[in-house]
Each structure stands twice: as structure tokens, then as C-alpha cells.
Amino acid sequence: MSATRRVSEEEYLHCIRCGQCLPVCPTYRVTLNETDSPRARVALMRAVREGLLERPTDRTAAQFFRCLLCGACTFTCPSGVTVDRVLELTRGEMTDLGLLPQPLVALNQRIAESHNISAEPPESRLLWTQNLPTPPTGLGKTQAEVVYFVGCVGALFPRSYGIPQSFAQVLEGAGVEYALLGAEEWCCGYPLAINGDLETARDVMRHNLEAVRATGARTLVTTCPSCFHFWKHTYPAALGEELGFEVRHATEFLADLLEAGRVPLGENLPEQVVTYHDPCDLGRKGGIFDAPRRVLRAIPGIRLVEMPENQGGSHCCGGGGNLESMDPALSQAVAARRIRQAAETGAQVVVSACQQCERTLFNAARTERLRLRVKDIAEIVLEAMK
Amino acid sequence: MSEQVWIARLQEILGPSKVLTSIEDRIAYSYDGTFAQQLPDVAVLPESTEEVAAVIRVAAEYRVPVVPRGMASGLAAASVPFSGGIALSLTRMNRILELDEVNRTVRVEAGIITADLQSWVEARGLFYPPDPSSNKHSTIGGNIACNAGGPRCLKYGVTGDYVMGLTVVLPDGRILQTGGKAIKNVVGYDLTSLFVGSEGTLGVITEALLKLIAKPQYVRTALAEFPSLDDASRTVNAILSAGVVPATLELMDETAIACIEEAMRLGIPLDVEAMLIVETDGSDEEAVRREMETVERVCRDNGARKVTVAQNERERAQLWRARRSVSPSLARKAPNKLGEDITVPRSAIPEAIRRIKEISARYGLPIVIFGHAGDGNLHPNILFDKRDPAQWEKVEVMAGEIFGVALDLGGTLSGEHGVGTLKRPYMEQALGPVSIDVHRRIKQALDPLNIMNPGKVLPD
Asked: With contacts defined as CB-CB under 8 Å, which chain A residues touch B30?
């Protein structure tokens, strides 16, 4: 990743406009307008490059930011075009031209100034730890084998507190020693990078890397798939060095703990039908499909059913690509479509492994008036513990 | 007269959200599944037949060209708006209006995605057989306008065989209903058939009444590997001569195989010259199994190295996903492809393949061959780089020679893609002056203002 890297001709030339990306694109399926399709976004990018569209405007840039970057198009493209990557780079070019849409300029500013997505003071990152039966053991620990990187949404959105609270309790129940970075944890940098501000992204990445290294940890674990994807795949390339520790998502960590018999499970969950929603950054981008399913299958009382669009072909929750800041109505329409797919399986509970999916799907279940509970995987594991 | 006036009229009638005028929107509606591109003046997204009729009335009043389209996956540049005007997208008209289980019909709006309709009826034990490889990214309206085919057409027939009636907005804005649920209907000309394959030149198809059949209960699918392409093409006729009517009988040559293997990593062997995908289906499990045994034997007798029968639905689905991805995956080999769609009497398939490979060798550009060999429909795809003018010049000559092969062997230009813009220059050669004259008179009678998809199908 370089601040000035432009999309190369080789990256878009092989888009032959076959149209296979249209039916898998959540924004296209919601608006049924070709303009909101991956094929059109690539055509638009190419029109800018080749002069058919001489001067890109705010309207032009908006089209690239009305995308979830979910990668369903890339997954399905038979010609091998990495559409989401092309669009990510094109967003950077738009930002360089001063065309970053206003809601996203504001998001970048918040992160640059406060180092989190919601302009909270740093100490707010610990509010989630306050109403637990006992304070998390990772609090204030300066050295540990494992660092739990909470992520902005889990740490700062009160309705998502349940995710770090559950995960911390499961870790403690399994006897894992871990450290929290607390106020020293900053935004991972992902939202900045996909909004084209790579310089600030590097600053926060550098800070986070040093903070984790200071603990001497050998493993960084996160409940957030976006932090996971960014740490694992972008940090080493963007900073030009090996991290020196392993990056794991909570689902991998939980699956191993369960299979090692370290999580004491009870028979306390009622029989229930559960469907699993693959987060884009964890599944398609992180290649982790099995771990969450291993976790769910290990829990007594759960019967797992799949939605037709699952794993690599999963349908975004609507929360990807900063779309929620850019166009909340479109984001909600995508979420509504996904939650209806979940309801059609007959499941009583939708489990995801992402605070953003959990939030968007929870809201969608409410607006669609569906009797469907939405939970994070850490929450359901905690419920199943003795 | 400025465009402003009629665009304002459209916005007044449909509301601004269904009339897209920005350059970004116009770019999105400027192409189809080919390399052709031209900006429309405006794209409109009507949501009912009445709204389509209102658009057409404005277009007629102001003499504005109208190019109807579904998902624009066409391979003949039929939905590229070369004359500007209105790109009319039917994609928001995607409702299922009525299922009649007794008469086994379904009435749908034109913009429904074909695969969505298929899975909906199959969940009810019914079956809509026509299966263009684009069925997940094309619409029923587009399928009808091109009379789309697909692998299963060998046994089940093409799209037109399942269209019992249509709602069409005529070029003057009137709404025409054709056909109905009665199986036999000989009152008047067969206007339904007139609009099937008309490629948007005679009116806008907005609704269709489609025939359904019972879903076949049992399916067996086999993949046969042939070290020799010639053996594979001879086997096609040997299977059909053995008294088996497979649901599908598909051929892929070595380049097609290499492309899908690169795209999908299925573990397909790369050291064969051709493969056949053969499927038998029906409601009698034993008969389906016996037919497949015959297919396996005939393949082996004719030089197949190996015949693998899919053991479960997952393996079968994977085979078909591979087959459906052949055409687009060719883009891995070259930035552009010209996908042709010739048909020949099936006895002539081995000869057609030999001659096409010879054209490829003579001009030094690869031609990949795959297609629905069982019904004589082949897709020779010329791979090239349009940025190189010398290559593009060759491609045009090669395409003409491929059409020459088809006509010489008693076949024709297109089996299922349609004529669009790309095959227009060859129409006279294929049909002769009398047929072209009849075509022109029909066009003139229905669309005297020449606003419906002008410059398509008919030669100048």
C-alpha cells in the first residue's frame, strides 16, 4: 500500500463487462440501478482514467464511496479482477483530488484528532469494563502473552459493550492471561485507509504496533474482523516490517480453546436453530469460514443452518466500506435484505462474529419486525458456559 | 430541439428518481457484455407497464431513440445505445404476478432475473427449463427479446418454446396483449412469436406468461475427458445416434478448460484436448441411470480417456458453475474476446470445429471453442487485445470467415445471442433479399418513426 499508488491498467483491463457481479452486489440488488453495480464502478473508474469523463466531481466520487467494499464481486469475477481493491485505490485517487465526501471527511478528522471513530476522549475506551461483576483481569496489565485489541465500536458504542465484555469473561473462564491496551489503543486505521488518508493511517498503525510490542505479546486477538483483516494483511505491508506477533480473530481463538476443553460448557442453552452470518472482512477477506462454525457446533443445544448466500458467497450486512456514514439509508436497505435471508432459514438466532454486523443486523431485525435475535459469537459462548 | 424538453417531460411523468441524467449514470448505461460503448442521453427506470408506455409516448412525440434493456449481459451489442436517446431499464419490474399451478403457467414482469424465477418455481416442484449461461445475470425480458437458449435446450427447447403470451408496449405507446393460457391458439398471426427474438426493435416486452413443466426428479451429470478434440466432436453425434436424448451435451476445448481451471481450481486435467459435459434427466431413476451408462460406454468407445459421473448435488453444481464461467473466464487470457454463436446441423460439428481451428492457425490469434454441441450451437471466441489495431483488423476478418463456415455447412450466424449490432453486416448473406425485405416491412409497420432500438438487427 502506497499513498500515491494508482490503479494500473492491468487491474481493470480484464473486466469484460459480463455482468456476473451484478446479482451478488448488495447495493445493486437493493437499488436495481446499474450505476450501483461493481461493473459500473469499474466502468466509471475507467472513464475517468481514459478521458470519457474529463473532470470527476463530487457526484463521481460519491459512486465509489457508495460501495461496501464487501468483495462479493471479486469473489465471483471469472476474469479475476479484484474489484474491491480497484475501488479502494480509486477512493484514494478521489481523496487526493479533494473529492472525499463530506461525511467521510468528518470521520477522518475525528480519527485524526481523537484516534477513534466517534471523537470520544481516550479514557472512554474503558467504559465497557465498568459494569462487569469483576473488572477484567487484562486491565492495567503491561505484560502478557496475548493482547486483546477491542476495536472502536466494541469499546465505544454502549450497545456493543456486550461483545468485549463477553469475550473478556470467556478468556478469563478459560484461564487465558491477556492485556488490554485501554486508552493506548487507537483506531486500527482501516476507515482512514479506505477513505484515502494513508498518511494518518500510518501514524495510528505505527502507534498501535508500538503499544502492542511494548507488552511483549506473542498474539494479538481481536473480536473485530476489520481490525483483524487490517492488522493481518495491511499493517506489515504498509509499515514495511514483520509485526513480530501473530494476529488472530476471536473465532479462531475460541475454536481452539473449545477444542482444547478449556472453556467449561454447560447444558444451559435451550435447543435453538442458529444461522451464521459471515462478516466480509473475516470470511472473504480473511479466509476464516470454519472457525466460527466449529465454535457453534461445539455448543450443546445449537442446531446450525446455513443461508443460501454463505461463506465466500456471503451477503454483506450493510455495514461495510464506511457506507453507513456515507449513505445510511442504502446501508439499512442492504441490512434489511440480509436479515430477511436469515429469517427465511427458519432460524431463531443470527450469530455473527463482528460488532458492526451485529449492530446493523439487530437494527434491521427491528425495522423489519422479525422475531429474530442477533448475537455476537462471544456472547453466545459466554451464555453456554457453566 | 434541445434534449432538455423531453427529459423534463420524463421527469415530470416518472419523478426525478427514475430519470437518471448524470454523466456517471449515463456511463453505467453505455455498455453491455461486449466491448461496445456509447452514452445514452438519459437512463430511465420505470416500475410498471403504464410507466413504460408513458416513456414511449414521450419518445414518439419527440422522436427520441429508445433502447430497452434488462441486465445488459448481451453479447451482440443489442442494448448499447449507439444513437443516444433513452436507455430504458426494466430491472425494477421484477415481480412474479401469478402462479397458476393447474395450468402450469407463471406470469412475471420482464425484469425478473431468470435464475431467481427458476429457484422460485423449483421450490414449488415446477421447472422453467431455458437456462442461458447468463441465467443469474440476465432477465426474462432480455431472454425473450433474444430468444435465449442454453445447455438444456437440446432436450427442452429454447426460451420461445415457453412463452405463451406477452404484454408489449408498442412504439406508439399502446399496450398489446398477446397469447394466453390456452395451449392451442390459432386465432390470428402468432404475434407472441413475432416479439420473441425481436431484440427491442418492435416494442418493449414488459410482462410474460410462461409455460412451466414438472421438475425432473432425477439427474445424472458426467464429465468425459478426450485426448483428441476430433474424437470429442464425433462422440456428440454418436451419443445422439445411440438413442439417448441427454438434457445437455456440452463441449469445451483445451483453452476453455485451462481458463476455468485457472479461475476455479477444480482439479480438472489440463492434458486433454476437449471435454464433454453430459447430463441425463427424467422422472424414472432407473431410466436416467441406464441412459448415463449408455453415454459412458459411447464416450469410451469413441476415445474418451476417462468418464466421471458427479456423485452428489455439490459436485454437479460445481461442474455447472465451471461451465457457466467459461465465457467470462476467457478474459484471463486476453483483454478482449469476440464471442460468436454460430449454429450448424449437428452432423457438421466435427467439420465446423476443424475449419475454425484452421482459421485460428492462419491468422495467428487463438479461437476458443465451447458450446452446446448437442444442438449444433458453438461459441467460437476470438481472443485479442483491442488496443492493437492490427489484431482488431484480423478479428473482423476472422469473424466474417467463421460466419462463412456456418453458412457453408448449412447453419446460421446465431443460435441464441441474437444479431444486435455485431452481426448486422452479415444479415443479408444469411437471410437473402426476400427475407430482409419482409423484415423491413414488419419494422416499418410497427415502428414507422424508427425509435425502437434503431440501428439494430436489420442492415442499413
From this structure: 43
pLDDT at A3: 46
Phi, psi of A216 (to 5 degrees): 75, 15
Does A8 touch chain B if contact means CB atoms closer than 8 Å?
no
The domains located in chain A, with CATH, are: 9-99 (1.10.1060.10), 103-255 (no CATH), 266-384 (3.40.50)
pLDDT at A4 over 70: no
List of chain A residues whose C-beta atoms are within 8 Å of the C-beta of residue B263: 78-80
Identify each DSSP E strand in A245-334 by its residue range: 246-249, 272-276, 302-305
Contact A251/B at CB under 8 A = no
Looking at CATH, the fold of the domain delimited by B216-333 is given as Alpha-Beta Plaits (3.30.70)
Closest CA to A68 of A316, A351, A371: A316
CATH topology of domain B3-89: 3.30.43
A80 touches chain B (CB under 8 A): yes
> Closest to A33 (Cβ–Cβ): which among B23, B45, B329?
B45
Residues of A in contact with B43 (CB under 8 A): 34-35
B92 shares contact with chain A (CB less than 8 Å): yes
Contact A170, A378 (CB under 8 A): yes
Residue B231: which region, alpha, beta or left (left: phi > 0; alpha: psi -120 to 50)?
alpha
The answer to whether B216-333 and B334-424 have equal CATH topology is: yes
Which of B33, B39, B337 has the CB atom closest to A19's CB atom? B33
pLDDT in tens, B390-410: 999 999 999 999 999 999 999
Tell me: the pLDDT tens digits for B243-301? 999 999 999 999 899 988 888 888 888 999 999 999 999 999 999 999 999 999 999 99
Burial grade of B293 (CB within 10 A; 0-12, 13-18, 19 or more): middle
Cell digits for A335?
441490512
Q: What confidence category does residue B331 fall into, taking pLDDT thresholds of 50, 70 and 90?
A: confident
In this prediction the ipTM stands at 0.94
B328 vs A17: CA distance, rounded Å: 9
Query: B73 vs A47: CB contact, 8 Å cut-off?
Result: no
CA distance A42 to chain B (A): 9
| This prediction's pTM | 0.95
Q: What is the mean pLDDT of residues A190-196?
A: 95
Fold exhibited by the domain B334-424: Alpha-Beta Plaits (3.30.70)
* Sequence ranges of the domains in chain B: 3-89, 96-214, 216-333, 334-424
Quick: pLDDT tens for B161-182: 999 999 999 999 999 999 999 9
> Under CATH, to which class is B96-214 assigned?
alpha beta
d(CA B132, CA B147): 10
Mutant choice from A18, A36, A50, A53 vs B, greatest count of B C-beta within 10 A: A18
A200-255 pLDDT, tens digit per residue, is 999 999 999 999 999 999 999 999 999 999 999 999 999 999 999 999 999 999 99
